[in-house]
Amino acid sequence: MKRLIFAFVTLLIAAHIGLAQKNGFDPGSKETAVHNEIKFSVPNGFEITPGQTSAIMRGSRSNGQFVARPGSLDTGQITGIAQDLVRKIVPGENFQFKSVPGRPILRKSSLQVGDGELKCISDKNSLVAITYNVLNVDGKTVVVGFGFKVTTPPDQARQLFDSDRGAGMSVPDLAAQAHILTSITGEPFLSIFPGVFVTARPR
After folding, report:
1. Rounded to an integer, what distance in angstroms lies between the CA atom of residue 145 and that of residue 133?
2. How is the beta sheet containing 55-58 ordered, strand by strand?
3. Which entry of 42, 82, 83, 151 is 20 to 30 Å from 55 by CA?
């Protein structure tokens, strides 16, 4: 009976992994890049471009990923990284930034030492949501995150920015961030983004 249960569970896991792969949760690796001695994999569907404080990977849907290695981590550093990103994904607009207060830590990696979420709104009421994770990699502080433009009417964008709630989440960007995280930490994709077992560590 135990063997039968084990076989059934194994079959379910295999089916879950196969379905996730079929659905394309892991975007796969386009190329390997290096930012400030941190090697990582650039997901398919993103174009890498240097920012002032980070490596920016711009997507095609007013979205993007980033990898940064700040000398220290404070509100000013995080805002600078966020500014780098929004300049690339929503160019030509001036943004103000706000941290989402009181959110629980969402642990994704065994090397994670913190995380956070920002909301950014422009003078044209464009709303961008940014999520990031802070890692300790061999004693180095590394920040890996993503942002995307939230599709919402301008008046609702301002209300959402002024509230204490988060601005939303993007599953494709979560998957792309998980791909980058595994490429830095060497952990399996499944442990960071359940559904696919892929190790994307650049060689």
Report:
1. 6
2. 47-50, 55-58, 63-68, 140-149, 127-137, 112-122, 95-99
3. 151
Cβ atoms 82, 96 nearer than 8 A: no
- The secondary structure element, H or E, covering residue 89 is helix 75-89
pLDDT digits (tens, 9 = 90+) for 115-157: 899 999 999 999 999 999 999 999 999 999 999 999 889 889 9
Contact yes or no for 27/44 (Cβ under 8 A):
yes
Residues in the chain: 203
Contact assessment for residue 20 and residue 193, using Cβ atoms and an 8 Å cutoff: no
Q: Which residue has the tokens 């301008």?
A: 154
Q: What confidence tens digit (pLDDT) does each residue in 168-193 have?
A: 788 899 999 999 999 999 999 988 88
Q: How far apart are CA 64 and CA 146, in angstroms?
A: 6
What is the gyration radius of the CA atoms in the chain, in angstroms?
18
pTM of the model: 0.81
For residue 85, what are the contacts with CB-CB under 8 A and spacing of at least 6? Answer: 51, 54, 56, 64, 66, 128, 130, 145, 147
Distance CA 183, CA 97 (A): 29
- Measured in whole angstroms, the distance separating CA 194 from the mean position of its chain's CA atoms is 15
